[in-house]
User: Fold these one by one.
Assistant:
Number 1:
Amino acid sequence: MAYLTLEDGTIFKGEAFGAKVDIMGEVVFNTGMTGYQEVLTDPSYCGQIVTMTYPMIGNYGIDETISESSGPQVRAFVMRELCKEPSNWNCRETLQEYLERYDIVGLAGIDTRELTRKLRDKGTMHGIITQVPPSVHQIEEMKVFEVERPVDETTCAEKYQYCTGERKVAVLDFGLKRNILRSLEKRGCALTVFPARTDPQEIIAGGFDGLMLTNGPGDPKVNTEIIENLKQLIGKLPIFGICLGHQLVALAMGADTEKLKYGHRGANHPVKDMQKNKVYITSQNHGYTIMSRSLPACAVVSHKNWNDQTIEGVKYIGYPMFTVQFHPEAAPGPEDTAYLFDEFIELIDRKRRS
């Protein structure tokens, strides 16, 4: 038995599995019907207690080859029903065994519909999972819980080479998903992955054809040093930013961001490409958005979320640079938005020819 307590005092009682420890974090929900392993291993979830809205989780087990990072990044994983006997030819272990191996807290048997409705109505809240009802001190501590610099927890420790190819691309790792690297590798790129706080002069001096800015966790505004570094890189080489990379570019260009009430997390969010006049199904994981009224004159909104009209993509006139809020590498469509990687390659090739 274990308890999930929200900062408003609501308590959910369920079945504990995985690590049997007390843990606190930001409670969020993901609406994906599949992809729970990709969710677990997405570094953008650092510091968060993730609730899956789909009623049964774990039914196809775990296959390490599809992980988006070296292991689970969530602080805890919450669901309605845990499948203990998965059926899939690729399954190597159960979800329960996986969380136990990585010491991640799991909680099953709670009313995830009620929890999700509460988060939608009141907004994202802090929460704590405990093995016994929490103390007053734990609840007060949970209310002010923050991961101070989540990007520092998820970025690589030192630079490394990922693959070879004809185009040299630098990748700034804010908490990257591996499929970003695979998507660029497929398009003939030689990738060098750099830690988030790399001196921009090292990248400029590296003779790279392009720069990839990856996804990552947390409030983009706390990354003040990275934002200043990006100001030195913008205009020097073609840039493509995804998720946190999208937000950091906007801040570096003088725009502002704000926190969404409960964020966008799932694999079924409609996004309209304003130039193509087409709506695509996208995968998303973010709690912040760019404020449209703050965009500089050179910024053109290229994509919009068709649920709430928030900004999902920006192109910068006069700069070889564009960014998107959603995850084109996550393949929910399955590859409807992969054209964005092709556009990045076109930017690189145009720059190389000039």
Note: The longest strand covers residues 257-273.
Number 2:
Amino acid sequence: MANFSKSTVPQFSVEVYQNEYLPEGGREVNAIVTVTSTGGGTTGRRSLTGAPAATALPGQGPNAAVVIMVDCSGSMDYPPTKMRNARDATSAAIDTLRDGVAFAVVAGTHVAKEVYPGNGALAVADAATRAEAKNALRRLSAGGGTAIGTWLGLTDRLLASADVSIRHGILLTDGRNEHETPEDLRAALDACAGRFTCDARGVGTDWVVKEVTGIASAMLGTADIVADPAGLAADFTEMMENAMGKEVADVALRLWTPVGVEIKFVKQVAPTVEELTGRRTQANTRAGDYPTGSWGDESRDYHVCVQVPEAGVGQEMLAARVSLILPAADGTSQVLSQGLVRAVWTDDMVASTSINPQVAHYTGQAELAQVIQQGLEARKSGDFDGATAKLGRAVQLAADSGNADTAKLLSKVVDVVDAATGTVRLKAKVADADEMTLETRSTKTVRVKK
């Protein structure tokens, strides 16, 4: 649980975008909830004492702990530059650590081993420990298998030893999780979920996209591909900078609904699509909490869909109340911000049939992610007509929403004849890296056009 004084909690705001008007008998209410956190990042900020915000103040322990998990399986030796790039990337990440942050490095094969500090605990970042850690990286060598669940388990134990609020993992793998069962990995993820967040990266093209994205999803982190190992250092530096910008953890999106209202789904829709419906934990009789992980200076969008009881023209009701909740160690919780979702029944056809632009945009973005994944699956299975139809729809949605990055990735897999109508032809030959990049980044969205 987080343990912040009110003075250190970033300021959160909640904005609700919806068309609250329903026709007589209408029951489905959709809303986009924009959550913004300000004053939490470390970049360029200074404390009240004038010390850089990125440095722990005298008498204060570090507020964050990070463990870097480096794949050291045998495949990391092919080509030999891959292991060297992984060492350089880890070194760059260590250089990015704030003074006072607790950290460790783990080597992952079919077992997990501590590389630094190696005593079952965490080191505290300063000039001396950074130098020691980077020196220890020289001992990293490739050999053995891959059992990611063991890496996560060791990371969890190390992070649990630190009395901090922000616990974060960075995981790098280049291959398939072949030395444990999918059930073993799922059990490890279930055990670690909610205890720390984790960003996952696949290097090269021999790893499984669904494994890496599944790890990041379960751990409320990010997933991406680094097709060329030479890009690892820049990617690791950016990941660590983002981790260092987190100031508050364990924030929950609490959804309260009155009697008779049914929650159809809750999902994050920006900056990525992430299904949250099944992650609900009951807060009280009428409310449930959905995890959002750690926050710095950032903004995210969530799509809430509820079903209300039928009502007649002129009636209105509170369909849901959305709150940002920060739990405390003593079992209490702090409400950081709040927004309301309403339902109003009207016989004005123009009002009741109008689709809110934010809702329409993110409905399209969620469909975009889905049809990309379906199209790539169809292509792999030899259903080329199905793949053409799904990826054509993806091209159309990307063009409509202004998602230029996804449109560019799609153009590596299909030849676009007409983006407006979604007319495409499958490319006869597609590079593995291009297909995997599209699949890995398929859930990345763009914000609604203002």
Note: The mean pLDDT is 92.
